[in-house]
Each structure stands twice: as C-alpha cells, then as structure tokens.
Amino acid sequence: MQTKILKVNPKNPNLSQIRKAARIIKSGGLIAFPTETVYGLGANALDAKAVKKIFDAKGRPSDNPLIVHISDVADLGILADHIPKTVFDLIDKFWPGPLTLVLKKSKIVPKIVTGGLDTVAIRMPKNKIAQTLIIQSGTPIAAPSANLAGKPSPTSAKHVIEDLSGRVSMILDGGPTKIGIESTVLDLSTKTPTLLRPGSITLEQLQKILDRVAIHPIIYGKKTKSVHRSPGMKYMHYSPNAKVILVEGSKTKVNQKILQLLRYYKEQGLRVGILSTEKNYTNSDMTRFIGNNLSVIAANLFKSFREFDSKGIDIVLAQGISHKGLGLGIMNRLGKAAYKKIMV
Q1: Domain count, the chain
Q2: What's the burial of 85, exposed, middle or buried (CB within 10 Å: 0-12/13-18/19+)?
Q3: Apex CA 262: angle with CA 260 and CA 266, to 5°?
Q4: What span, in angstroms and rounded, lies between the C-alpha atoms of 47 and 243?
Q5: In a 3-state reduction of DSSP, which class is residue 301?
Q6: Does 169 fall in a domain?
Q7: Is it the case that residue 172 has pLDDT exceeding 90?
Q8: Residues with Cβ < 8 Å from 159, sequence gap 6 or more?
Q9: What is the mean pLDDT of residues 95-111?
Q10: Cα–Cα distance between 312 and 314 in angstroms, integer?
Q11: β 141-142/39-44 pair status
Q12: CATH code at 177?
C-alpha cells in the first residue's frame, strides 16, 4: 500500500483535503490524523471490518479496547446506554478536549472496538483537523495512537511515517501535537468514577467536579485481575527500543544513582542516554533535557524516546518527577515504558 501524506493547516484545515481523507474512512480505510494529544489511527467505528484493519496495521492485541472519537454530544446517545448525569457536568467543563469517558456501550458498537467488553470509551477531540474529519466522515471514528503496538506514541507526522508508512492509506500532517501524552480516561460505568489512565485533565481537576474519584491501582504499577476497560492498562506501552530505567526519589539521591548507573553501563560498552529535567549530565552518549515545566515535559517525552532510538542508545536513564497534577500522567507513561524501576 502506498501511503499518501497531506500537509494540513491545523488552525484552518482545507476542506477539500479533509474530504479526501473522509472518503477513505467511508470506504473502510485507515487515516492517521492529529489530535491535541497524539496522532491517531482512525477507521469507521461502526464498521467492524474497517476497525480490524487498525489492529492489523498496529500489531495490536485484539483485547485492547479502542477510543471512539465523536464531534457531537448527541452521538453519546447512539454509542452508550445508561448515561449518568455526571457525564454532562464533565463534558460541559472538559469537552472538546483530552478527556475520555468509559460508559456502558449500546448494541450499535461492534465488539472489536471494545475488546469484547460491555463498555465503550468515548471522547470529543479539540483539534480542528480531527473535528473536521469526523464531521466530514459522517461517523464516529475509532482511533488508538498511530504507532506500532508498544512503541512510543507519535506526536508528529514524521513519527507516524516511521511506524506506519505503507500500512495506512493517508496521513494528515497537522504539525506537532500540543499535549504529547494520551487523553485522561475516566470510567463512569461503575458506581464510583474511576481514573483508568491519567493525562492532561488531572485528577485534581476531576475531583473539583465529582464527589469522589477512585484511582485504579494499575496507574501506580500494581498488578490486578480486574477488567481493563481502557487502552494503556493491560500491556507494556510507550517503549523505545532502548531499555528504560526509571529512577525515583529525592533529587540528590536520584542524581547520584543515575551517575552510578551511567558509569556501570558505560563500562559494559553500552551506549547510555539520560532523560533529564536538569542540565547536569555530561558523560552520557546523549542527554535529552526535556524541560522542568510539566507541560513541556509531556510534550517532549515520546519525541525524546524516538530520538534516543535514532542515535542507537541502548539504555535510557530517566529521572522521576512528582506525581502531582500532570506529573501523574507523565510518570504513568514512564512507568509503562520502563523495563526496570529504582527507588532511592
């Protein structure tokens, strides 16, 4: 398959370009497109055969549910049953935007979209290209991140091309995404709303709207036998080819441990990279300073992973950060990417 790439103005998308992509969605094909979080790989959410192509293109396990993207709140009534009143408080505050809501699914949603579960994950993206594509396609669009399964999520069209060129019909290049990590996922299908995946809509923000928010233990890396109703829960995700070692603790001890590990792995002849929120490492093969502001760190995280791979780095030593606010989402991604975690 030859993949066509169209550059699209993210602030004022060209309608004729979007209609070309929409025709592919309508005919059962795949389109990679930007959202405000990461790039998505989209298909008609109501066409089971089209959705299967997403799993095939990504090499994604079939029991890993997808998120359905909509452009109109009215679509909730089509896709979901038993919608609690709290939904409307949340969408008034956070939609369109990076908040995904898990609800009991309606019969119209194919089982392949939900990983065979009785729930469906739904969000309304804020990105204008994504919004226009959904509208012109005339259907909700199922879309996980547009990368090979397990790899760092794509925050630019270049990343999508690296992973999926030849596997999708078209890539809409809308420039770099703004947020850089995937949407927050909140389960409203149970009595107590439960945070399944943290993101840029923070736990603290949700707590201002809801009386109580439970936190799924898997967010903190704890094993559980409970049903995984959200992408990003069941499998190792977001990982570069390099082995990521996440080091957490007090700043002084973290710095000391990273220097110790740097010497150890360098003595073994390995190429060592450091993912840093400070500019104080000089002996590594590659140090990527990703910022000391949480929004900047989130925007740079997955891009940095791919840069380490492009330089042939074997080991990435990553500094942990606070779990508060957006930090919870960043640390969730680092934890899922890590092959080893060290507390000091």
Answers
A1: 2
A2: exposed
A3: 125
A4: 38
A5: helix
A6: yes
A7: yes
A8: 39, 147, 152, 302, 303, 306
A9: 98
A10: 6
A11: antiparallel
A12: 3.90.870.10
The rounded mean pLDDT for the chain is 94
pTM reported for the whole predicted model: 0.95
Judge whether 230 lies within some domain: no
CA dist 194 and 143 (Å) reads: 22
Look up residue 114 and give its two tokens: 């939900």
pLDDT at 236: 61
Domain that includes residue 302, residue range: 243-343
The reply to whether 46 and 111 lie within a common domain is: yes
Q: What angle do CA 160, 67, 207 make, to 5 degrees?
A: 115
pLDDT digits over 212-252, tens only? Answer: 999 999 898 776 655 566 665 555 678 899 999 999 999 89
* Domain-located, residue 51: yes
**Residues 40-97 pLDDT 10s:** 999 999 999 999 999 999 999 888 999 999 999 999 999 999 899 999 999 999 999 9
**Domain assignment present for 50:** yes
Domain boundary among 166, 188, 220: 220
